[in-house]
Amino acid sequence: MQLLDIRNLTIELRTSDTVIRAVDKVNLSLKEGEVHALVGESGSGKSLIAKAIVGVLNKRWHITADRMHWRGVDLMRLSNEQRRKIVGSDIAMIYQDPSRCLDPTAKIFEQIAETLPEMTGSGFFLKRNRERKDRVKALIHKVGIKDHEKVLSSYPHELSEGVCQKVMIAMAIARTPKLLIADEPTTALESTTRAQVFRLLKSLNQLKNMSILMISHELEEIVNWSHGIHVLYCGQMVEAGPTQRIFTQPRHPYTQALLKSLPDYEQGLAHKEPFYALKGTIPTLQHLPIGCRLGPRCPKAQKACVVTPPLTKLHGHSYACHFPLIKAMK
After folding, report:
1. Please, where are the H alpha helices in 105-235?
2. CA-CA distance, 7 to 67, in Å (whole number)?
3. Cα gap 106→124, rounded to integer Å
4. CB 257 within 8 A of CB 267
5. What pLDDT shows up at residue 328?
């Protein structure tokens, strides 16, 4: 079943002087039980897309889309109250900066307990309270926090960034959402904890059939368990398709650059040999290039690139490039 279906999503920032198009006609679809990844450099618009789906962008951002369907319902046509009801029950998001998202005035136990679904049935107050504590404790253990008594009785500022991130994950999965949006969920974690979080997300997908939209720079971590990858650059979707096809046959030069920048642990590097990196830097939103936004940095750029390339689709693999790396088979 098609859970999420977005067509031509555009997000603009309106200032006193001009209108800045931060996300430009992005398409995204996600089926039930699938794991898709949004990848790209910082500033590509990945978090903006996630926040637009959840509906937490402030009024300075203007959002338009030909279609933004959640299980057949157009989210753009719902009232704020109707949309909050759907998002609150079916969609959860792990934010990138947990220290800013957690309430500094409330203890961790109270914050996690607020996210639990309402308990059904009757019973004494003490019994319900004990069940509530057990459910919070189980969530904390599930995300890899062993010292639950100390963490649950603490305020966010008393915990490390990594523990706060685990708390955010526990809050996100408390209601067992149908779609979990993970915005760089392992940014503040050490390597062992990062691997643990990825295993947790993978098990949620496989055992609970939870769909996941992953925003991550960890390409090597998601290749083995994601179904599709969407590559963004400066708010434009430059390539999208099945994970294995993207990794083995990239069509867009930017996708190829991302893959070439991954370290090859088997081959290794020569002494003082630098890692591969695409030349130049990502432009600011105020000075975006016309046409293909990768043009000034692209090694294959030509005059035709001053015009926005059309989206080419081939067997579930789509890309937007005038000069793709591999010519399409007829």
Report:
1. 108-115, 125-142, 148-152, 161-172, 191-208, 219-222
2. 5
3. 26
4. no
5. 45
Between strands 236-242 and 19-31, the pairing is unpaired
CB contact set of 300 (below 8 Å; sequence gap of 6+): 253, 323, 325
CB 94 within 8 A of CB 36: no
Mean pLDDT of the chain: 87
List the chain residues with pLDDT less than 70: 1, 119-125, 188, 263-269, 271, 327-330
Contact (Cβ atoms closer than 8 angstroms) between residue 45 and residue 235: yes
CATH topology of domain 2-97+178-226: Rossmann fold (3.40.50)
Tokens 């392992």 locate to 186
Q: What integer pLDDT is reported at residue 285 of this predicted model?
A: 83
Sign of the Cα torsion 309, 314, 319, 325 reads negative
Does residue 262 contact residue 22 with C-beta atoms inside 8 Å? Answer: no
The domains of the chain are located at 2-97+178-226
230 closest CA partner among 40, 95, 53? 40
Which single residue is written with the structure tokens 């109250």? 81
What is the structure's pLDDT at 320? 93
Taking the C-alpha atoms of residue 317 and residue 97, their distance in angstroms, rounded to an integer, is: 33
Q: How far is CA 300 from the centre of its chain?
A: 29
Contact 28, 206 (CB under 8 A): no
Sequence-separated (6 or more) residues with CB below 8 Å from residue 199: none
Q: Minimal CA–CA distance to 261: which of 277, 242, 238?
A: 277
DSSP-derived secondary structure for 43-75: TSSHHHHHHHHHT---TTEEEE-SEEEETTEEG
Q: What is the dihedral of CA 242, 248, 253, 254, to 10 degrees?
A: 60
DSSP 8-state symbol, 330:
-
pLDDT exceeding 90 applies to what percent of the chain?
45
pLDDT in tens, 44-60: 899 999 999 999 998 88
CA–CA gap between residue 104 and residue 29 (Å, rounded)? 36
3-state secondary structure of 262: coil
